């Protein structure tokens, strides 16, 4: 392999994360400064088509490691392969995901080098990558350099780097990687599907709801629901129904505060914040969310924040670009209707 | 199984790695490159509470003991005391002047050495990530160093059999949950869905406050002069204050407000 800058293409069952292409864009910039090219590394089974896509998004060439033993993501065999592919590289970039954090961490051990997860900015200084990453739940930023060891391993946060325009006319060499797998210590038994819908971390627009979604005393639950907690959840379902309608017209993902998750209104997979997902969409609409610091930790890098809240003093308004002081049960349906009209849906 | 067949070796020897971190509600500032959280208390890393809880539940179900290990300065003992107060049997502080400011590549080396020194360990628990450095990689690195299976981001342990030393878990992927089986010894990191951590009992707190916590140094772990971080942190600073002046959209009716807001979002090319 000739190129000194590698990008690992993360995928779930053969479908690439869009952030993989963002990482290729970031890698191109590094490669230009270093006077090198970019090689995409693809690991899995039946993943040849990802090599072609990677080249369209800006990789100069690609190496592919395929085996039935790699059909499911398992960190150990994937790390065996990636450590082999990256042994001579200067820089290895991966898009941040639950998988790649672990994979990159293991490759760093194999190659006795440094690894910085979830970086949001990259520069090249004196031939070394100078990365910026948020720490303390995004309250601080830290610069990170991996000195004297190679490869410099970094994972790039979703949506922190622009996605290159694919160019179908690009071509490049695709080679197969020779590899041997160590003993695979785990056995994948199956998958339980997560709730469908637009993925939070990749979403351009997120519409979120907080504890406020259950706060509509004028809604009367059906007679058969007598338990108070059940009545609250029923109300919250009406509220999240409205939030979901708004998400629908905007082709947005649904988010939630921890209070809404803990109260059982919506699954944990939807939680945004320090103990949930970190997101940075172009537009984040927070409905009935007060804006606790742990919630802000997950969404403060959103480009534009809109807040709908009854309380004019709610801290969320300190971060919001646009605010509506009002009852979400009135405002959200009106917003849905207005977007429908203006966006011609 | 009949009680007399239950031999001592089938109980679990569990280690849980815990870190001391500033409270997440703390106001964090930087002065002269030094991070400060004022008077805010240091606490057991919130993610690690779930790890301690799961270790305790397994011990309660199958018998055995739980040892909490923390790498850090003397004041990391507070995290260990909280682990003891929750119900861990033992606590060990891994501490040495040469451990200050290590990156996770080296922290994982020290923790792996400590786990090997404990000996005969069946399971090692980790939290999802540290709330100060937000890295979430130490558990995977320790697993790699020990050569044990890494079961990361586990949301539920579906089964565990101390006799056959086999367990089945569900780990969180962003797209779905992956069901995985492995044998002990294994390394497990947990997410908050796995349980609801208990509060320390009054008795537990009393016991913990009296506990003598042993300290293991670099020499005792055979790691003298062997640790050099791969990472350097040339700068750390507070996020630049973006002065977003919130533009409040007002009107007589929700419809009027909504129409104005949508107009503004279109004008500003947000949608
Ligand atoms: C270690 C730790 C980790 C945490 N991690 C997270 C995390 O990842 N994510 C997270 O979100 N939180 C997290 N939290 C919790 C956080 O501190 C807050 O408790 C939580 O975010 C509050 O959620 P909320 O804004 O929905 O509820 P509340 O704070 O109760 O706010 C509800 C808001 O809705 C408004 N409202 C009520 N009714 C209406 C209505 N009808 N119309 C319009 N507005 C209405 C109210 O004015 C209020 O501002 C964490 C806490 C800790 C200690
Ligand atoms: N200094 C430490 N001592 C003991 N355990 C640690 C330490 N640092 C990290 N850990 C463990 O590793 C997990 C992940 O931490 P991190 O990789 O730092 O985000 C934490 O939740 C802890 O369980």
What can you tell me about this protein's structure?
The complex is a heterodimer of chains A (345) and B (271). Chain A has nine helices and 18 strands. Chain A has helices spanning 18-34, 48-56, 75-86, 98-110, 228-249, 258-262, 293-299, 316-319, 328-342, and strands at residues 5-8, 11-12, 15-16, 38-44, 61-66, 91-95, 115-119, 121-125, 128-135, 140-146, 152-156, 174-176, 186-193, 205-209, 253-256, 283-287, 304-309, 322-325. The longest helix of chain A has 22 residues, at 228-249. Helices cover 27% and strands 29% of the residues of chain B. Chain B is built from six helices and 15 strands. Chain B has helices spanning 46-62, 77-86, 104-118, 138-146, 202-210, 254-267, and strands spanning 12-17, 20-22, 29-31, 34-36, 42-44, 64-71, 90-94, 123-126, 150-161, 166-172, 176-183, 186-190, 215-216, 231-238, 247-248. In chain B, the strands form three sheets. In chain B, strands 11-10-9-12-8-1-6-7-13 form a nine-stranded mixed β-sheet, with helices on both faces. In chain B, strands 2-5 form a two-stranded antiparallel ribbon. In chain B, helix 2 packs across helix 5 and helix 3 (104-118) packs across helix 4. The longest helix of chain B has 17 residues, at 46-62. The chains are: A alpha/beta (345), B alpha/beta (271). Bound molecules: flavin-adenine dinucleotide and adenosine monophosphate. The site of adenosine monophosphate has 24 residues of chain B, from helix 1, strand 6, helix 3 and helix 4.
* Total helical segments of chain B: 6
Q: What overall form of chain A do the CA principal axes indicate?
A: elongated
How helical, in percent, are the residues of chain B? Answer: 25-40%
Structural class of chain A: alpha/beta
Strand content of chain A: 25-35%
Mean pLDDT score of chain A? 94
Which stretches of chain A are low in confidence, meaning pLDDT under 50 for 5 or more residues running?
none
Biggest β-sheet strands, sense, barrel of chain A: 7 strands, parallel
Give the largest interface pair and sizes: A-B, 91 and 80 residues
């Amino acid at each position: 392999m000739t190129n000194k800058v590698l990008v690992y293409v993360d995928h779930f069952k053969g479908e690439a994360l869009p952030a993989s292409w963002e990482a290729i864009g970031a890698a191109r910039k590094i490669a230009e400064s270093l006077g090198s090219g970019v090689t995409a590394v693809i690991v899995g089974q039946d993943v040849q088509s990802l090599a072609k896509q990677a080249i369209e998004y800006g990789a100069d060439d690609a190496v592919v490691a395929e085996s039935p033993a790699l059909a499911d993501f398992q960190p150990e065999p994937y790390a065996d392969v990636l450590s082999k592919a990256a042994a001579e590289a200067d820089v290895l970039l991966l898009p941040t995901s639950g998988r790649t954090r672990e994979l990159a961490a293991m490759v760093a051990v194999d190659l006795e080098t440094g690894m910085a997860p979830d970086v949001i900015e990259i520069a090249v200084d004196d031939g070394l990558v100078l990365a910026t990453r948020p720490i303390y739940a995004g309250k601080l930023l830290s610069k990170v350099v991996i000195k004297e060891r190679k490869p410099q391993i970094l994972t790039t946060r979703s949506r922190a780097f622009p996605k290159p325009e694919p160019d179908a006319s690009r071509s490049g060499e695709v080679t197969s990687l020779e590899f041997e797998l160590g003993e695979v210590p785990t056995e994948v038994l199956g998958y339980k599907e997560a709730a469908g819908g637009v993925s939070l971390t990749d979403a351009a627009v997120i519409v979120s709801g907080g504890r406020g979604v259950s706060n509509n005393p004028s809604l009367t639950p059906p007679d058969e629901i007598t338990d108070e907690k059940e009545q609250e959840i029923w109300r919250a379902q009406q509220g999240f129904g409205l939030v979901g309608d708004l998400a629908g017209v905007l082709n947005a993902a649904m988010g939630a505060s921890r209070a809404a998750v803990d109260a059982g209104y919506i699954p944990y997979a939807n939680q945004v914040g320090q103990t949930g997902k970190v997101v940075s969409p172009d537009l984040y609409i927070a409905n009935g969310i007060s804006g606790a610091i742990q919630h802000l930790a997950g969404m403060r890098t959103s480009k534009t924040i809109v807040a709908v809240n009854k309380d004019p003093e709610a801290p969320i308004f300190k971060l919001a670009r646009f605010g509506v002081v009002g009852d979400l049960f009135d405002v959200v349906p009106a917003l849905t209707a207005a977007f429908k009209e203006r966006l011609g849906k | 199984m009949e009680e007399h067949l239950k031999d001592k070796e089938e109980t679990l020897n569990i280690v849980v790695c815990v870190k001391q971190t500033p409270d997440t509600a703390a106001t964090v500032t930087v002065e002269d490159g030094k991070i400060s959280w004022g008077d805010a208390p240091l606490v057991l890393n919130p993610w690690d509470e779930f790890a301690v809880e799961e270790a305790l539940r397994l011990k309660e179900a199958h018998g055995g003991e739980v040892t909490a290990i923390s790498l850090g300065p003397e004041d990391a003992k507070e995290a260990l005391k909280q682990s003891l107060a929750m119900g861990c049997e033992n606590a060990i502080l891994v501490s040495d002047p040469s451990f200050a400011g290590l990156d996770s590549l080296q922290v994982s080396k020290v923790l792996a050495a400590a786990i090997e020194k404990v000996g005969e360990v069946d399971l090692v628990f980790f939290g999802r990530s540290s709330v100060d450095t937000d890295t979430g990689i130490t558990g995977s690195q320790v697993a790699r160093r020990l050569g044990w299976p890494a079961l990361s981001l586990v949301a539920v342990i579906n089964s565990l059999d101390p006799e056959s030393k086999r367990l089945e878990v569900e780990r969180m992927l962003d797209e779905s949950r992956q069901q995985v089986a492995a044998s002990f010894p294994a390394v497990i990191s947990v997410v908050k869905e796995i349980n609801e951590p208990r509060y320390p009992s009054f008795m537990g707190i009393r016991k913990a406050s009296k506990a003598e916590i042993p300290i293991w140094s670099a020499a005792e772990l055979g790691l003298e002069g062997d640790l050099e971080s791969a990472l350097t942190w040339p700068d750390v600073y507070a996020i630049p204050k973006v002065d977003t002046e919130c533009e409040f959209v007002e009107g007589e009716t929700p419809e009027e407000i909504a129409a104005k807001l949508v107009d503004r979002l279109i004008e500003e090319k947000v949608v």
